[in-house]
């Protein structure tokens, strides 16, 4: 059976060039970068080259890049590290209702420690309104954290405007850019970003490695005690092979971003248009234009996302409902709820996230299979229009009770 991967927002396949270098630094070049002998120096050199490569992708200086175990740790470090180190200045944090749980749960933890957190609402397209950010700022606000692009519905936020506002008010600005790095051109200076989280495995790199950009001069404390690695901000022997893999992924992203964006956007638009043309009662979630190149997210009336997902999987198509971290539970997505969708509609969402390994044939196959599945599930659904017609038809005794 043909297998199609449409879940790049959960994780991307690893680039073959990346896999090769990860293996090299796992199997042969295994030195500890903190050792001063030749094995150590070889590893140190590779780690610093990776730092340079990640910095280049963001328009940052290499001294502003700190390696972590991934997006979750980067978010935790940025939020808690800044909050705890700036407590004397103020105890108020502004974020949004649609953040990844790595940010939301970090904020909840900070609330337990006495911080006040404002969770900004979003509009029906999942966009944060600048006015709301402005109005939320108090003289106690020390940090604003707004994700660059949403992992479920793909909406790209007005980051530059928020960054400008934060800068004017002398408030630190963090963005969770895990979904955006490699898919959107980002320059930390142009966008006035002070802290930024990214993750290797959302960028065709390895899992378990990420980085946080921290602008020079930002006051931040470590969360972990131990050695003095990463300028004492992140103790523990560096994940050398992961870091080198992330560096390679960043280098490739920088080189190929423009072409990748154009290619994936074309596939995305073909899939969106195909679904809208072929499947009635389907609703696109997220913004029409300010949307991640690979993100497609739909609600199909009368159908649960979970049944769609399982039926697509039987046909070899890997998709997702909302975010991977939330699946396994039938809770409706907090992002769709924040956009104003009802609980019922929010349970019917399907996310198809495309990447640069996908083809037009994948899109066509998916369109064909998806419309068949939707039609079949609707014909069985007690909620569907056809069933309702039968139920409400007084001539039809059989369905009447
Ligand atoms: C995947 C993701 C994370 C978590 O990154 P990990 O490296 O898996 O810990 C954080 N934020 C967003 C927006 C994500 O998509």
Automatic annotation (TrEMBL):
EC number: 2.8.1.7
Record-listed [2Fe-2S] cluster binding positions: 325
Residue ranges of domain Aminotransferase class V in the record: 4-365
Gene Ontology molecular function terms on file: cysteine desulfurase activity
Keywords assigned: 2Fe-2S, Cytoplasm, Iron, Iron-sulfur, Metal-binding, Pyridoxal phosphate, Transferase
Keyword Iron-sulfur: yes
N6-(pyridoxal phosphate)lysine modification, residue list: 202
One family name in Pfam for this protein: Aminotran_5
Main location, first listed in the record: cytoplasm
Gene3D superfamilies: Aspartate Aminotransferase, domain 1, Type I PLP-dependent aspartate aminotransferase-like (Major domain)
Location in the cell: Cytoplasm
Cofactor(s) needed by this chain: pyridoxal 5'-phosphate
Pathway: Cofactor biosynthesis; iron-sulfur cluster biosynthesis
Active site: 325 (cysteine persulfide intermediate)
Key word Lipoprotein present: no
Binding site for pyridoxal 5'-phosphate: 71-72, 151, 179, 199-201, 237
Catalytic activity: (sulfur carrier)-H + L-cysteine = (sulfur carrier)-SH + L-alanine
Subunit architecture: Homodimer. Forms a heterotetramer with IscU, interacts with other sulfur acceptors.
Function comment: Master enzyme that delivers sulfur to a number of partners involved in Fe-S cluster assembly, tRNA modification or cofactor biosynthesis. Catalyzes the removal of elemental sulfur atoms from cysteine to produce alanine. Functions as a sulfur delivery protein for Fe-S cluster synthesis onto IscU, an Fe-S scaffold assembly protein, as well as other S acceptor proteins.
Family: Belongs to the class-V pyridoxal-phosphate-dependent aminotransferase family. NifS/IscS subfamily.
Protein name: Cysteine desulfurase IscS
Lineage: Bacteria, Bacillati, Bacillota, Negativicutes, Selenomonadales
């Amino acid at each position: 059976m043909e297998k199609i991967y449409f879940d790049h927002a959960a994780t991307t396949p690893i680039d073959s060039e990346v896999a090769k270098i990860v293996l090299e630094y796992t199997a042969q070049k295994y030195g500890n970068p903190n050792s001063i002998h030749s094995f150590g120096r070889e590893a140190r050199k590779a780690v610093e080259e990776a730092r340079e490569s990640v910095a280049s992708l963001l328009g940052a200086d290499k001294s502003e890049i700190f390696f972590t175990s991934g997006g979750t740790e980067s978010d935790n470090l940025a939020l808690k590290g800044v909050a705890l180190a700036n407590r004397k200045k103020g105890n108020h944090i502004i974020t949004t209702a649609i953040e990844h749980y790595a940010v939301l749960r970090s904020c909840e933890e900070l609330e337990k420690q006495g911080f006040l957190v404002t969770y900004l609402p979003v509009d029906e397209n999942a966009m944060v309104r600048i006015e709301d950010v402005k109005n939320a700022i108090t003289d106690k606000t020390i940090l604003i954290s707004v994700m660059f692009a949403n992992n479920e519905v793909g909406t790209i936020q007005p980051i530059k405007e928020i960054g400008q506002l934060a800068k004017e008010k002398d408030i630190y600005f963090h963005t969770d850019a895990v979904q955006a790095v490699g898919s959107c051109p980002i320059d930390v200076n142009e966008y006035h970003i002070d802290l930024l989280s990214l993750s290797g495995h959302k960028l065709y790199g390895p899992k378990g490695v990420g980085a946080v950009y921290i602008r020079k001069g930002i006051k931040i404390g470590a969360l972990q005690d131990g050695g003095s690695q990463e300028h004492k901000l992140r103790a523990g022997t560096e994940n050398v092979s992961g870091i080198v893999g992330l560096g390679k992924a960043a280098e490739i992203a920088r080189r190929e971003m423009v072409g990748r964006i154009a290619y994936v956007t074309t596939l995305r638009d073909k899939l969106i248009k195909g679904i809208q043309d072929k499947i009635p009662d389907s609703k696109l979630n997220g913004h029409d234009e300010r949307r991640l190149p690979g993100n497609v997210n739909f609600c199909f009336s009368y159908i649960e996302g979970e049944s769609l997902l399982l039926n697509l999987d039987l046909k070899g198509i890997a998709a997702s409902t909302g975010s991977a971290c939330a699946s396994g539970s039938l809770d409706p997505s907090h992002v769709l709820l924040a956009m104003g969708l009802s609980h019922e509609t929010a349970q019917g969402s399907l996310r198809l996230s495309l990447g640069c390994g996908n083809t037009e044939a994948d899109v066509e196959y998916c369109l064909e299979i998806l419309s068949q599945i939707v039609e079949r599930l609707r014909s069985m659904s007690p909620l569907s229009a056809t069933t309702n017609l039968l139920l409400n038809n007084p001539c039809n005794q059989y369905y009447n009770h």
